[in-house]
Design goal:
418 residues; Growth Hormone, Chain: A; globular
């Protein structure tokens, strides 16, 4: 795209995501090397998630009351400085697990505050007619960063240790702040009214009332949350169990298979940006929903003993088939989720966009561990392949209900607003 603001926005995001990806992989390895404790890794994970959950709503309110660009720059600079302090402490050997835990609380809060403003800013930088293309560009670069960051993280930590990781991530945030500074943006949202408990509750109430009043927005949000409730545990919990414990793929093979999902996401967003951008959101969402559901069912059927027995003579063939299906699901996931994100951005007014997406993200974050707990418990009770097939069918039924019952607004905001 030729839009300078979007180019700066996407590049800044890309650089910071690579730095974050490097640190996200390296820090758990460092904790394990330092303590040898799974409990310590669990505590770090909790200190990453909980502050973000508690800060989510406030970050959305800040994003709707302050200049979003300046909030993003402030959070990038603050995170860069904080991680630079960690790097210095590691350099002079005055660094321990407790300092890391405390710093992570502040980093998690800053991450969420940045996110609340960032997600609200992008639609302001571009005309609605090319919003789908801009989202596909952003998601495509996100996918590349998701591949590069973790890959570099493991290698760099193994070669140079944790201090280099901190220096690199600190620089990535500083570069992100510099690029964001050059985005041309004038905010009309700044509210000088002092934030109080009453105003805090009122601003949350405004979003919830709007959500329940807009039928299409409610249907789309409910569908997205239900999908996350089932799909994320399916791919992050049950599928790893099935591939490693059921089919006996190695950890390395499993890692390669999951990379193909990200490759599919990248290809799907490239296809949208180059070839499918002229299609209506409704058509893209329907294609993505139908084919993702169908492909997921077929892939889950491959785990049936009678099917896996067929591949016993050639485990490589099964590995290749799984890679292809993961890539196809990633591709169709992009043709579904990118239009969904675009329509949500168009449905929600600018003056409550940060609040809406922060609350939406909070509900999604809560739904995922709840789904993981329920399905993890179920996994101990029934065969993994039966659970995979049952889940894929339930997801397909939810998709079918959405296809049959969703109003036009759930697919395309402009249909209503014309």
């Amino acid at each position: 795209m030729n839009n300078r603001n979007i180019q700066l926005y996407v590049l800044a995001r890309f650089i910071s995501l690579i730095g974050t990806g490097i640190q996200t992989i390296a820090v758990p390895l460092f904790i394990l090397d330092l303590t040898g404790s799974g409990t310590a890794m669990g505590i770090f994970s909790v200190l990453t998630i909980l502050p973000a959950i508690f800060t989510a709503v406030l970050s959305g309110i800040i994003g709707d009351r302050k200049n979003r660009k300046y909030v993003m720059i402030a959070m990038d600079l603050a995170r860069g400085m904080l991680i630079f302090i960690l790097a210095l402490l590691a350099t002079i050997n005055y660094f321990n697990i407790y300092i890391l835990f405390i710093m992570q609380i502040f980093l998690s809060i800053m991450d969420e505050t940045f996110s609340g403003s960032s997600i609200g800013l992008m639609p302001e930088l571009i005309d609605n007619t090319v919003l789908l293309q801009a989202n596909s560009l952003k998601e495509g670069f996100d996918a590349v960063a998701t591949i590069i960051g973790p890959a570099l993280g493991g290698v760099l930590y193994g070669l140079f240790g944790i201090k280099i990781i901190f220096y690199i991530n600190s620089v990535s945030f500083m570069l992100s702040a510099i690029l964001s500074y050059f985005i041309i943006y004038k905010s009309n949202l700044v509210k000088k009214e002092k934030l109080s408990t009453k105003i805090f509750l009122r601003e949350i109430s405004e979003v919830l009332k709007f959500l329940f009043r807009k039928k299409g927005l409610f249907q789309l949000s409910l569908f997205a949350m239900l999908s996350n409730f089932l799909l994320v545990p399916l791919f992050d919990l049950i599928m790893p169990y099935a591939l490693k414990k059921g089919i006996h793929f190695s950890s390395q093979q499993y890692g390669y298979i999951t990379c193909f999902f990200t490759v599919g996401l990248l290809l799907g967003n490239v296809a949208i940006s180059l070839y499918l951008k002229k299609f209506r959101l409704k058509l893209l969402m329907k294609i993505g929903l139908i084919f993702e559901s169908f492909t997921t069912i077929i892939m889950c059927l491959l785990f049936l003993p009678i099917i896996t027995l067929f591949f016993k003579g050639s485990i490589i063939s099964l590995f290749i088939v799984m890679c292809i299906f993961y890539m196809l699901i990633g591709f169709f996931n992009a043709t579904l989720n990118t239009p969904i994100s675009t329509n949500l951005q168009e449905l929600v007014p600018n003056d409550m966009r940060s609040r809406f997406f922060s609350i939406f993200g909070l509900l999604t974050q809560v739904a995922i561990p709840l789904g993981s707990f329920i399905l993890g418990f179920t996994l101990d009770k029934i065969k993994y392949y039966d659970l995979l097939i049952a889940l894929s069918l339930i997801i397909a039924i939810i998709a079918l209900i959405f296809l049959l019952k969703a109003c036009d607004e759930a697919y395309e905001a402009e249909i209503i607003t014309k």
